[in-house]
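in:
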């Protein structure tokens, strides 16, 4: 009765809050299973830091993807690090448009003399902290994304004005995500929540001193962000029903910000919201096989709106909803003592995505009323098949994922899509 009640309450809460699942980077094993991310795997640390308590004294390297390592410091405390992870506010990581808008806002004249702040290819490490309290496990994912540039020019020509120019700019996002894993006697529940406080500031100061004792003048231009915020909430419930391990999950990621440009004008308020729900199951087959099937439903919503509804024609509220649903399926079979390997695993998977886009403009106020909604053609993607293998030997593990649709030639065959190496130390 308690299990049914908890399951019902969780399901209602997920649908009521519009929770969802992020597009976290995966490893070769998950990719080979079609991308089905409900499978218990070390890559789940990227979504829920609390999972580090289940993968202590382990390092995993996925080429062209994040590198994660966890070290146990005793029975309770673990520490870890994640590198090569996409920035928290860079699409498709979490909520995607702040950094692009910030770089634009640092533009002329702030950025006219060169320099760059926090481009999308920056790689900022995340620090992980885990606490294993038996029935309750806790994890923290801490980050401080920061980049800046500075420039000083001293131009003092003979007989001309002495001009000193100082240019500086920075973009930053400090925050953390806490997660908890509860063991509920036959069920598991993990919950997470976190915030980030992104910001940007640029300044250009030009001091001009005329020759022979003229009056010195200083001209200052500044730009900055206003009321920027990033947040994430999520939950995932796991329960066993006969031979099936069922997973229900949801997540919400959102951000909003405004920019004040060099002329001191506050821009429209921009926002990004990501809602996602997912459900699926895994089941063992003949003790050596694992099958997974899941569905992922989500909405990405982004746009801008003026501070008030008293708008001119150019100040309408504009937003785009991107609606998607994806089906994932995969299977892996493991043989023990295969050749000189401890285990050998063969994998196959696929995914099938359907998505559509809705553009919406709306406004009312002193400028009159306006409402426009355009639904674009629904897109049905091709089925995306994947193949993969995995081997283990002592403390070493190697996983490969290949994409049969990318054929490199008669001899070389399909291209390797992803490689993951793990070390259990």
């Amino acid at each position: 009765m308690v299990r049914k009640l908890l399951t019902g309450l969780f399901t209602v809460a997920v649908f009521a809050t519009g929770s969802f699942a992020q597009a976290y980077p995966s490893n070769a094993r998950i990719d080979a299973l079609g991308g089905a991310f409900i499978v218990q795997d070390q890559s789940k640390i990227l979504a829920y830091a609390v999972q580090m308590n289940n993968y202590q004294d382990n390092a995993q390297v996925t080429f062209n993807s994040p590198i994660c390592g966890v070290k146990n410091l005793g029975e309770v405390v673990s520490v870890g690090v994640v590198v090569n992870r996409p920035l928290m506010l860079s699409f498709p990581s979490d909520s995607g448009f702040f950094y692009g808008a910030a770089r634009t806002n640092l533009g002329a004249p702030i950025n006219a003399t060169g320099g760059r702040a926090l481009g999308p290819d920056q790689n900022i490490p995340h620090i992980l902290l885990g606490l294993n309290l038996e029935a309750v496990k806790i994890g923290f994912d801490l980050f401080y994304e920061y980049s800046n540039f500075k420039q000083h020019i001293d131009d003092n020509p003979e007989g001309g004005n002495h001009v000193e120019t100082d240019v500086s700019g920075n973009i930053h996002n400090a925050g953390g995500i806490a997660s908890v894993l509860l063991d509920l006697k036959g069920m598991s529940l993990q919950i997470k929540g976190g915030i980030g406080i992104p910001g940007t500031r640029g300044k250009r100061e030009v001091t001009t001193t005329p020759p022979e004792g003229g009056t010195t003048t200083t001209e200052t231009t500044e730009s900055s962000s206003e009321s920027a915020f990033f947040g994430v909430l999520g939950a995932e419930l796991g329960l066993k029903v006969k031979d099936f391990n069922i997973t229900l999950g949801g997540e919400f990621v959102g951000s909003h910000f405004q920019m004040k440009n060099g002329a001191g004008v506050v821009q429209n308020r921009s926002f990004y919201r990501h809602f996602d729900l997912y459900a699926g199951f895994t089941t063992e087959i003949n003790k050596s096989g694992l099958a997974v099937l899941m569905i992922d439903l989500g909405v990405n919503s982004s746009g801008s709106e003026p501070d008030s509804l008293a708008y001119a024609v150019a100040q309408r509220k504009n937003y785009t909803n991107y609606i998607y649903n994806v089906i994932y399926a995969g299977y892996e079979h493991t043989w023990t003592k295969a050749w000189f390997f401890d285990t050998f695993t063969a994998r196959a998977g696929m995914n099938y995505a359907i998505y559509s886009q809705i553009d919406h403009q709306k406004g009312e106020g002193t400028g009159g009323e306006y409402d426009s909604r355009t639904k674009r053609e629904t897109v049905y993607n091709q089925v995306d098949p994947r193949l993969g293998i995995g081997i283990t030997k002592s403390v070493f593990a190697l996983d490969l994922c290949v994409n049969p649709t990318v054929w490199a030639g008669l001899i070389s065959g399909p291209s390797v899509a992803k490689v993951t190496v793990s070390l259990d130390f």
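note: The helical segments are 2-17, 28-32, 98-105.
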